[in-house]
Design goal:
The chain has 189 residues and is of the alpha+beta class. 19% of the residues lie in helices and 33% in strands. The protein has helices at residues 8-21, 164-184; strands at residues 31-32, 36-38, 42-50, 57-61, 64-68, 76-82, 87-88, 90-94, 100-102, 116-123, 126-131, 145-149, 152-154. It has a 6-stranded antiparallel sheet with strand order 1-10-11-12-3-6, with no helix packed on it. Strands 5-4-8-9 form a 4-stranded antiparallel sheet, with no helix packed on it. The structure holds calcium ion (2 copies).
């Protein structure tokens, strides 16, 4: 086998495929119905990233109101300290309709669909959460309330296995991808 450094160019060419084939890993794009997990023992801070919705709604963690959709983007809220591995289940309350929706599995919601995309490629240890505020999914634009959280990641249970043919196709590229990820892993990990 060639030294791993010789695989770098080939690996970089395959990273785009990796994003598509491994929707649950740390390089994933948005995951519908994903869970939000605290990365390390310590503080989690929420940042309001905006809202594109006709309705007004508020985000809660337990009984704590974090944001309301008509406030200024960029506002932050300190959620406090958590133990690594804690799963955070957020709740959206839609003022106009009285409907309540939860992040995570579709089974959490009265209409049986997932109401939040989770994207842990948003920033370093940051997770972007974007809610749909309509019962049954409505327009399914999932931009009705958008927030990000520090010190969080998408749930481990969402990692998916690639098809066997994909394993053969990517072969050495996966080894190179692993090396690339190790080299680029933050030192705090
Ligand atoms: Ca919208
Ligand atoms: Ca919507």
């Amino acid at each position: 086998m060639k030294p791993l450094t010789h695989l770098k160019g080939f690996t970089l060419a395959l990273i785009g495929c990796g994003i598509f084939l491994f929707p649950g890993n740390s390089m994933a794009a948005s995951i519908l119905g994903g869970n939000i997990i605290v990365q390390h023992d310590g503080n989690v801070t929420a940042t309001f990233q905006g809202s594109n919705a006709g309705y007004t709604s508020s985000l809660y963690l337990g009984n704590t109101k974090i944001f309301t959709s008509n406030q200024a983007s960029g506002s932050t809220f300190n959620l406090g300290n958590f133990t690594a591995g804690t799963q955070l289940n957020f709740r959206l309350e839609v003022h106009n309709t009285g409907n309540t929706f939860f992040s995570g599995s579709a089974a959490n919601n009265i209409d049986g669909i997932a109401h939040a995309f989770i994207d842990d490629s948003f920033g370093n240890n940051e997770t972007l959460v974007s809610f749909e505020d309509l019962l049954g999914g409505g327009d399914k634009d999932y931009n009705d309330l958008i927030f990000s959280f520090s010190n969080t990641k998408a749930g481990e249970n969402l990692v998916q296995n690639p098809e066997p043919s994909t394993v053969i196709l990517l072969g050495s590229g996966i080894i190179g991808l692993a090396a690339w990820r190790l080299r680029n892993k933050p030192s705090v990990q």
